[in-house]
Specification:
InterPro entries: Arg-tRNA-ligase (IPR001278), ArgRS_core (IPR035684), DALR_anticod-bd (IPR008909), Rossmann-like_a/b/a_fold (IPR014729), tRNAsynth_Ia_anticodon-bd (IPR009080)
Helix content: 40-55%
EC number: 6.1.1.19
Structural class: alpha/beta
Family: Belongs to the class-I aminoacyl-tRNA synthetase family.
Number of strands: 12
Oligomer: single chain
Keywords: Aminoacyl-tRNA synthetase, ATP-binding, Ligase, Nucleotide-binding, Protein biosynthesis
Radius of gyration: 28 Å
Shape: elongated
Distance between the termini: 44 Å
Strand order of the largest sheet: 5-4-3-9-10
Strand content: 5-15%
Catalytic activity: tRNA(Arg) + L-arginine + ATP = L-arginyl-tRNA(Arg) + AMP + diphosphate
Length: 537
């Protein structure tokens, strides 16, 4: 063999011939390669170019809409999973060179806000609102929904019997709700002022919780931001194409007449003149395209919304805007089926985050055997707990439902966020007294030929392929599967190293530490693309 062969001797394995890269050659090629690229290692920024032949040209733009809670109601587990997966989707697009707009599309418009206003008039307290605005709004909303329930059941029963429910809906809370929402749509100053107070309180509360989770948004948009011009444009196009039908004062689309039987019939504008969620979403597509000229728009929302997005794309096609329909992608996320007792009373995003902190603190307090390389400050406990939230979600495919398991989420000896962070902390502690730079031309690469080092190098070299596959499928679980392999090998290699005597082996130690530093970089890249902050950074 030549002095530095690219491959080791082939190994016969049945009918196969196994060919492995030479550890010496791989380390010489890989370590400087990772070092040069640092945070960009594993990613191909050319994928985000508008013209692949023009590397200095403009980027393609993607809007990623995720989280998107409703202003008047609880932060549901579907919003939580959308937040986690949506953050990853935005992150990986950015690393692949796209210009990313992260959008939180609040449910801040509609009849439900009219009902909340009716509740505020009966149960609202300025004193309680000043203390905990969003929590108080949830209390008000719960109380008014209890009052509204008998009326709502009457309407459901009438419709189930095929009767006209319009008389019931013209009285009581139905009428009060609809009148207030009509005032909102007519831009009544008092109605808009109250709505604005509610919206401002919602955004302020969630902004703080998102920051704690490490999630940011470029825009807090919402149904309220949809322009009247785009609403009119949608309706005009639907009428011109002959698909907009009037029925009992409402305007609707019967999709069965347009080669889309599975989409049933959808109301687009209600009989009292107010807009539907579908109409506002269609208008929002037009508004966003006018503002951003996006190349792709991704909605990261629950699987249950699939029909709605099929309706959106079908409506765009019926309007003659198939060009926009082709740019829309629904990245579906499955349900979280169950929560542990510590999360049973969660109503706000901050409640979930506090629950993660509590169960993580308990796990650390009870751990007596596993060595801890993280400190026990509140900040670190919070980081480990939130890491557990991300990692437990991402160990499942995004279309796979699961139940949150607090013990698995916080375990320091299993495949959890806490265990992963503990490994990262152990690795950084090994590097704490290492010079910032290594001379990669003079490193003793022969010191890295042992099987543990060779296997670690092989895993590090695979990150690019894993990241590409994850991006193609928009599947964060592929990154987690990879990181767990990386963690396992790092821990095994560190264990072996700790048993060795490295006295008077400076050159060998430098090569090992250069390997660990680049393994740490790959580790960091994998965590950050998932939205997880590495310990100590």
């Amino acid at each position: 063999l030549p002095r530095s062969p690219p491959f080791a001797c082939p190994i016969k394995d049945g009918i196969h011939l196994r060919v492995f890269s030479s550890p010496n050659t791989l380390s010489r090629l890989l370590l400087p390669y990772i070092h040069d690229r640092c945070a960009s290692y594993g990613y191909d920024s050319s994928l985000g170019l508008a013209d692949a032949a023009a590397p200095d040209g403009p980027k393609k733009k993607v809007i990623v809409e995720f989280s998107s809670p409703n202003m008047e109601s609880e932060f549901l587990v579907s919003h939580l999973r959308s937040t986690l997966v949506g953050s990853y989707v935005a992150n990986i697009h950015a690393r692949m060179g796209w210009d990313v707009v992260k959008m939180n599309y609040l449910g801040d418009w509609g009849k439900q806000i009219g009902l909340l206003a009716a509740g505020w008039e009966r149960f609202g307290s300025e004193e309680e609102f000043a203390k905990q605005p969003l929590r108080h709004l949830l209390e008000v909303n719960h109380k008014i929904k209890e009052l509204f329930k008998p009326e709502h059941e009457q309407v459901k029963a009438a419709k189930a019997e095929g009767k006209d429910a319009s008389e019931i809906e013209s009285k009581g809370l139905h009428a009060e709700r609809d009148v207030f929402f009509k005032k909102m749509e007519d831009k009544d100053p008092e109605a808009i002022a109250l709505w604005q107070r509610f919206r401002d309180a919602t955004v302020k509360d969630y902004t703080g919780s998102y920051a704690r989770l490490g999630v940011t948004f470029d825009e807090y948009s919402g149904e309220s931001q949809v322009s009247a011009e785009s609403v009119a444009e949608v309706e005009q196009a639907l009428k011109e194409k002959g698909v907009y039908e009037e029925h009992d004062g409402s305007w609707m689309i019967d999709f069965s007449k347009h080669d889309a039987k599975g989409l049933s019939t959808a109301v687009v504008r209600y009989r009292n003149g107010t807009t539907s969620y579908l109409l506002r979403d269609l208008a929002a597509v037009l508004d966003r395209y006018k503002a951003h000229k996006f190349d792709k728009m991704i909605y990261v929302v629950a699987m249950e919304q699939e029909m709605h997005f099929h309706r959106v794309t079908k409506c765009l096609e019926l309007m003659g805007r198939g060009d926009l329909a082709e740019l829309i992608q629904h990245v579906a996320v499955a349900k979280i089926n169950g929560l542990p007792d510590q999360f049973k009373d969660t109503k706000l995003l901050s409640d979930y985050l506090d629950g993660c902190h509590t169960v993580m603190q308990t796990s650390i307090d009870e751990e007596t055997e596993e060595p801890l390389f993280v400190d026990k400050t509140d900040k670190s406990v919070d980081l480990l707990g939130l890491s557990g939230l991300f990692i437990q979600d991402f160990t499942h495919k995004r279309t796979t439902p699961y139940a949150v398991d607090s013990k698995k989420m916080t375990s320091l000896v299993r495949d959890s966020g806490a265990a992963i962070q503990n490994c990262y902390a152990r690795l950084t502690s090994k590097l704490s007294e290492v010079p910032a730079d290594f001379d990669y031309e003079t490193l003793d690469y022969a010191a890295l030929e042992a099987e543990d080092y060779a296997e670690l190098l092989r895993i590090m070299a695979q990150y690019r392929d894993v990241a590409q596959a994850s991006f193609k499928a928009l599947e964060p679980s592929l990154i987690i599967i990879y990181l767990l392999r990386l963690v396992e090998q790092i821990m095994a290699t560190l264990d072996d190293d700790d048993e060795q005597d490295w006295t008077d082996k400076d050159e060998t130690s430098k090569a090992r530490l250069a390997l660990y530093e680049n393994a740490r970089q790959v580790f960091e890249n994998g965590l950050r693309v998932l939205g997880v902050s590495p310990y100590g950074l």
